[in-house]
Amino acid sequence: MPESTERQCEQCGTRLLAGRRYCLVCQAPVPGATQRPAGGLAEIIRQIPSTRRPDKTLVFVPERREARLKRESRNRRALIAALIGCAILTITAIALWRANERKLAQAQLQRRESMARRELDLYAKSLEIFYVDIGRYPIAKEGLAALSKRPSTLPGWRGPYIEGDFSVDPWGNDYVYKVFNEGAGYQLFTYGPEGEAARRVFLQVNSGTSGPGGVPKL
Questions:
Q1: Could you tell me which of 80, 127, 130, 151 has the fewest CB atoms within 10 Å of its CB?
Q2: Residue 121: which of 170, 208, 186, 189 has the closest Cα?
Q3: Is 87 helix (H, G, I), strand (E, B) or coil?
Q4: Strand partners, 178
Q5: What are the residue boundaries of the structural domains of the chain, listed by start?
Q6: What distance in Å separates the CA atoms of residue 212 and residue 216, rounded to the nearest whole number?
């Protein structure tokens, strides 16, 4: 059959172009056109630069897939273990921090309480010495200031009976001084860390709790 004779695709009946090995419509192979070019034409085709690149598609290999799945499983387990470890460390750190904060707060409370006891003891001893010299405790008008500064109405005052000003307790509140029967008795106390809002006495000394030697006890 001459090359110029028109041929049709056996699959779809489309007119085939000369020199084509496949139908342009249905891509069916053209019988008798599958042979590779030979001679000068083949040499020309071989000299044409190719744009094809190496195929980097990985061939499916069951062993490689199994190894990859095992590796991913190990990585997931390692990640989960690391997250759990971090969570445990965080919880432990928070618990230790809170315990330390409570310990520090308790230690600070104890220090302030010890300071308040010492100051109340100083006031108690000073009040007893004042009582020996004057014959009574400072009245409400005179207050605790009478222990460090002589009132004009007390000629027998031999103070100062206390060194320094301790009128404010370790929590920043004033000590409360109450006197009874024109100086026959007294009560000195602090409301403690909660202040007056607590509505209860935290520590106190008074003339009715004197120990040996006339020194009031806390």
A1: 80
A2: 189
A3: helix
A4: 187
A5: 7-36, 115-214
A6: 8
Mind listing the pLDDT tens digit for each residue in 148-207?
Answer: 888 888 888 887 888 888 888 889 888 999 998 888 899 999 998 888 877 788 888 988
CB 149 within 8 A of CB 161: no
Tokens of 59: 């061939």
For domain 115-214, the CATH class is: alpha beta
Task: Enumerate helices (H) and strands (E) in the chain, giving the number of each.
Answer: 2, 5
Instruction: Quote the strand ranges of the chain, DSSP E.
Output: 7-8, 15-16, 176-180, 185-190, 203-206
Print the SS3 string covering the chain: CCCCCCEECCCCCCEECCCCCECCCCCCECCCCCCCCCCHHHHHHHHCCCCCCCCCCCCCCHHHHHHHHHHHHHHHHHHHHHHHHHHHHHHHHHHHHHHHHHHHHHHHHHHHHHHHHHHHHHHHHHHHHHHHHHCCCCCCCCHHHHHCCCCCCCCCCCCCCCCCCCCECCCCCECEEEEECCCCEEEEEECHHHHHHHCCCCEEEECCCECHHHCECC
